[in-house]
Amino acid sequence: MPIRIARKAIGAIILGIDKVTSPRAPSRSSQQQALIDQKTDGLKIYEMHACPFCVKVRREIKRLGLNIARTDVKKHADDMTTLISEGGKFQVPCLRIENQQQVTWLYESDEIIKYFRNICLEAN
Ligand SMILES: N[C@@H](CCC(=O)N[C@@H](CS)C(=O)NCC(=O)O)C(=O)O
């Protein structure tokens, strides 16, 4: 299947570029990091390793120095099922946000990145 092979090749190239240009985490006080960790505690990214939109989100997570739980839905069929049944569709990346027992699912890499940036702004 040529499309499958092309996708795999593009994925490998993106992962390679990501590896050599990986962003650096910011340096912050342990107190500030603890505050941010508290704010990101109920978050989990549903992703696939070689998905370019997931790479974009992972890079931002690293650039912002966030500790976010992640699951690769290709490797974890149960998480794939949860994503589809609770989130509403199969699309990655998707951010599961659990806040005081309320769960919401945020699709779209740009929206997820905005959400992360706001957390950091609020913690400053
Ligand atoms: N606009 C979305 C695009 C996300 C997207 O297309 N993800 C692909 C994987 S790279 C996907 O989940 N496709 C669903 C499918 O293959 O059915 C974003 O920026 O997050």
Domains, number: 1
End-to-end separation in angstroms reads 49 Å
Helix content: 40-55%
CATH class: Alpha Beta
Structure overview:
The protein is 55% helix and 17% strand. By secondary structure, the chain is of the alpha+beta class. The protein has a four-stranded mixed β-sheet. β1 (43-47), α3 and β2 form a beta-alpha-beta unit. Bound molecules: glutathione (GSH). The site of glutathione has 9 residues, from α3.
Short summary:
Helix content is 55%, strand content 17%. It is built from five helices and four strands, in the order ααβαβαββα.
Write the layout of secondary structure elements.
Layout: H1 2-20, H2 30-39, E1 43-47, H3 52-64, E2 69-72, H4 77-87, E3 94-99, E4 102-107, H5 109-123
Parallel strand pairs: 1-2
Antiparallel strand pairs: 1-3, 3-4
Glutathione (GSH) binds at residues 51-53, 90-93, 108-109.
Key phrases:
binds glutathione; single chain; Glutaredoxin; flat; 4 strands; alpha+beta
